[in-house]
Design brief:
The protein is mainly beta and 212 residues long. The chain contains two helices and 18 strands. The chain is elongated.
């Protein structure tokens, strides 16, 4: 199916129910509830066994939840909705639109291929995540850990990734320019490091050695 088909398959009633169900479990006001599970999709599961929310439009922030095995590819977040202070494992956010929004807390084995994350506010830990082809221009991250993440062909123009830790990450084809990596640390194969471009590199260390 195409992006348009994933989006248009959702009718108004299905979207309203998805957001009602999410509102019942997300946020601080629902922390007292037991079994705060991410809603089930009216479309069942994908071929990969993930809960199928591809193309959904969410008006509710996914907040203070533990989410596993959900596919939110092509999802759109409207209003103030974002991914905020939650734990995501084995989730798919391919080509998701999260520009100028929060993408925070912990992400493990998640895919952000082709995602629009420009101007996003990013934290706190990403492990075994794939950002191939995503737009991270002007994104802001401070003291964030990226473990074994793939950043192939990522647009980092104007991004401010300061005091971050990149462990065994790859950056083939990634573009940095007019941003900052000040105070960040890189460990792993030096052949997998990015082309820095006109990027602030004050205090950057590679395998323990100061770069500039």
């Amino acid at each position: 199916m195409s992006k348009k088909q994933f989006i248009t398959r959702w009718d108004d009633e299905q979207l309203a129910e998805a957001n009602r169900s999410l509102a019942a479990v997300t946020g601080k006001s629902n922390l007292h509830k037991k079994d705060r599970l991410f809603p089930s999709s009216p479309f069942g599961q994908t071929a990969a066994g993930l809960e199928d929310f591809r193309g959904v439009e969410l008006t509710e922030t996914i907040q203070y939840l533990t989410v596993q095995g959900v596919d939110l590819s092509y999802a759109r977040f409207v209003g103030a909705a974002s991914l905020n202070t939650s734990t995501f494992t084995n989730c798919c956010f391919d080509r998701i639109k999260l520009d100028s929004r929060y993408v925070t807390h912990e992400f493990s084995r998640c895919s952000f291929r082709g995602a629009k994350l420009n101007n996003a506010r990013i934290s706190e830990r990403f492990e075994d995540c794939d950002f191939t082809g995503s737009n991270l221009s002007k994104a802001i991250a401070n003291d964030v850990s990226f473990i074994r993440c793939r950043f192939s062909d990522v647009n980092f123009r104007g991004a401010m990734f300061m005091h971050c830790r990149f462990e065994e990450c790859s950056f083939e084809g990634a573009v940095f320019h007019n941003g900052s990596l000040a105070g960040s640390r890189f460990t792993g194969e030096t052949g997998l490091l990015p082309v820095w471009g006109n990027t602030i590199l004050d205090g950057v260390k590679i395998n323990g050695e100061r770069l500039v």
